[in-house]
Structure formats: C-alpha cells, structure tokens
C-alpha cells in the first residue's frame, strides 16, 4: 500500500474532528493512496475514541488503503505482537508498521522474537514494515538486521528540520547508510517530518516537494508524511503539488564537484561530533573532580 504517498495519523480525533469523510477527502485531494493510523501503544490499545476497525473500515469505504501502526517498547513483546496480530486480522489492516526506536538498541534477541511471533501470526506474505532511525551510522546498536529478516520494507524517519540539515543531505546519508546495511532503495519508503514543534520549524513547501522528487529519483516506491494533525494548509498544498511517481531524471550519483562538497560537509560534521564528544568527556571529568574536592568520591 506504500507505493505512492500516504500520511501518518496519530490522534484520530485531532484530524478534522475524526470525521472520516473529511479525512478521506483531504487525503485524496493531496493525491494520497491511504493513511497509517495508530492502533496501539506497546501492548495496550490506543484510545482513538472509537474501535480501530471502525476507523479502518470508514476510510476504506472511500477507496483508501489503511495501515495500522504502533510504538513498540519490547518489554512485553508477546503482548505487543498479539495486539499487532489483532490489528491485522480483526482490525482488517492492509499493512502494519512497527515504530521501533531506542528501546530496541542492543536487544537484537527481542527484535528477533517479536518479528518471528508476528510472522507466525500473519503469514509470510503480509505487508509488515518497520520505521526507525534514518541515519544508521549514529545508531549502530539498533538491530536493523533482525527487522530486515522479517519485514517487507522500512520507513526511515527522515526529519531533516529536526536534524537541522538540508533535505538533500538527510536523504543522501539515509540512502548511503541503508545501502551499507544491504537495504535496497526499492524497499525504503522514507518518512518526511511535516510538522513544527518547539525549536523544530516546519519544512518549506519547496523542501517537501524536493523530498518527494529525490526519493523517487533514488528508487523508492513511495513516501509518507508525519503527521496529519500537525500539517497546516501550506504543507497539504505541498503534498498536492508533489506528484508520485515524480517524472524526472533517474538518480545516477553525485557529480565530481558535488561529491567533493558532500565529503567536505561530512568531514566537518565528524569534527563537530568529535568536538562535542570531547566537551562531554571534559564535563564528566569536571564533575568527578568536584566530587573529589568535596570529599564525595
């Protein structure tokens, strides 16, 4: 169902008042094939004001596809797997996405057990996906391999405004990192952060259009946007103005000049990371020294 554009839904009642007709109309006007609707949080059903299956059926009645998703923690992976299976079978989801993040770092055994149980419950052919960190080089303890073994694809969270990066750099590093893990572009369905929160500003309409264009050029079959309740009219108009697939020149790699600039940016970024690490270690040593001087060590 992700072979086009789709939008994430977190709190159903905050999306045009939870009126399925209005939600469907907005999605279809923006050229979206469907929505990813939150079904549960960990092993517990998420309160959407009405049963998840009713939301799913209502959106489907307007010709949309509907995926279920949940944030998973791995502490009760058996319970989480059971809620996911129920979302798929009882809820009639067209696909299912596991939102798996820091809680799974260093816990490949839990990721493997969760995915095995899910596959046993839904079969090998069901569209099962995972969504997690976009820049894998910074999350080396995350068990990408375990999820890759069992999933149909991945939806990396490419939130470039939160990274404070240009959209081009965020997407480039994501594809580069995922390729290093053996993940093909046609199984990657990037997620754009179309939201504003705290110090994170909205991406511009031009950035959202560039995101869709670049993802299409790099070989992804679809993209999605976080999230319905956060998007304003400008962001919705940007989605509508971003056709899928994007007609254009297929990605053939960076020009020599662009590659030199990219590598220089990467070098400077590594220096910043190393510098930040030295500052952090210095603060740690200073705290240890203070304890010694105060007689606490």
Descriptive account of the structure:
The chain is an alpha/beta fold and 297 residues long. The protein folds into two domains: 5-240, Alpha-Beta Barrel (TIM Barrel), CATH 3.20.20; 254-297. The chain is 44% helix and 15% strand. It has helices at 20-29, 52-60, 77-89, 108-122, 144-150, 160-163, 167-180, 205-218, 233-240, 256-293; strands spanning 5-9, 32-41, 44-45, 65-72, 95-100, 128-131, 153-154, 157-158, 191-193, 223-226. Strands 1, 2, 3, 4, 5, 6, 7, 8, 9 and 10 form a ten-stranded mixed sheet that branches. α4 (108-122) links the parallel β5 and β6. The longest helix is centred in the C-terminal third of the chain and has 38 residues, at 256-293.
Report the CATH superfamily of the largest domain.
Answer: Glycosidases
Span between N and C termini?
58 Å
Element-level helix/strand string: EHEEHEHEHEHEEHHEHEHH
| Total domain units | 2
Strand content: 15-25%
For the report, how would you describe the main beta sheet? 10 strands, mixed
CATH architecture of the largest domain: Alpha-Beta Barrel
Described by its quaternary structure, the protein is single chain
Can you count the beta strands? Answer: 10
**Rg over alpha carbons:** 21 Å
Number of helices: 10
Overall geometry comes to globular
Provide the low-confidence segments as ranges. 272-277
CATH class of the largest domain: Alpha Beta
SS-derived structural category: alpha/beta
Look up the CATH topology of the largest domain.
TIM Barrel
* Average of pLDDT: 90
Fraction of residues in helices? 40-55%
């Amino acid at each position: 169902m992700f072979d086009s554009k789709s939008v994430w839904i977190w709190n159903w009642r905050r999306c045009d008042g939870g009126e399925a007709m209005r939600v469907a109309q907005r999605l279809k006007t923006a050229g979206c094939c469907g929505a990813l609707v939150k079904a549960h949080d960990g092993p517990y059903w998420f309160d959407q004001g009405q049963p998840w299956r009713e939301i799913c059926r209502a959106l489907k009645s307007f010709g949309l596809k509907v995926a279920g998703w949940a944030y998973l923690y791995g502490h009760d992976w058996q319970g989480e797997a059971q809620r996911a299976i129920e979302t798929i079978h009882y809820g009639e989801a067209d696909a299912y996405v596991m939102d798996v993040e820091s809680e799974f770092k260093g816990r490949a055994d839990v990721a493997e057990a969760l995915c095995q149980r899910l596959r046993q419950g839904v079969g090998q052919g069901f569209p099962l996906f995972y969504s997690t960190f976009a820049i894998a080089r910074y999350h080396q303890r995350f068990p990408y391999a375990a999820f890759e073994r069992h999933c149909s694809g991945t939806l990396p969270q490419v939130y470039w405004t939160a990274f404070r990066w240009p959209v081009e750099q965020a997407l480039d590093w994501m594809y580069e990192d995922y390729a290093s893990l053996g993940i093909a572009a046609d199984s990657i369905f990037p997620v754009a952060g179309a939201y504003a929160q705290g110090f994170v500003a909205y991406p511009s309409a031009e950035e959202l259009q560039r995101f869709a264009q670049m993802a299409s050029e790099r070989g992804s079959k679809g993209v999605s946007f976080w999230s319905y309740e956060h998007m304003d009219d400008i962001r919705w108009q940007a989605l509508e103005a971003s056709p899928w697939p994007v007609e254009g020149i297929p990605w053939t790699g960076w020009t020599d000049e662009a590659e030199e600039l990219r590598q220089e940016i990467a070098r400077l970024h590594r220096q910043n990371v190393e510098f930040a690490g030295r500052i952090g270690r210095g603060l740690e040593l200073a705290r240890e020294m203070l304890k010694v001087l105060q007689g606490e060590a």
